[in-house]
Design goal:
By secondary structure, the chain is α+β, with helices and mostly antiparallel strands. The protein has a domain of about 80 residues: Beta Barrel (OB fold (Dihydrolipoamide Acetyltransferase, E2P)). Helices cover about 25% and strands about 40% of the residues. A hairpin with a 2-residue loop joins strand 5 and strand 6. The longest helix is centred in the N-terminal third of the chain and has 21 residues.
Length: about 110
Amino acid sequence: MKKLLIGLLSSFVVVAFLLAGCGTNKTVKADYTTKQFETALNKGDNLEGKTVSVKVNKLVPNSAFGYNIQTGKHLNFVSTDNPNVKKGDTLILKVKKVASTLGSYVITYEKL
């Protein structure tokens, strides 16, 4: 009986570790590509809280808005924190706020 109990307990521990490990490699899928995102903004859609896959075309670290990740035709993803990216990097960002300024979009975000 004692061996059976130890065997069952061991099995539960192994299963628990396997299940815990399954949730750690969570892949985030973006709601929009850069092109889809810009099209939706141009239509007037509210995209706050949505996620977008962004390819860094240019990083301007000293813009008027802070660190500016430029992508698309008129998209500027801005942050006061250094995003630690370089041209060509692809990342997924969660949109906090969108503002339109001088024909471009200024978007604050959370890096995922």
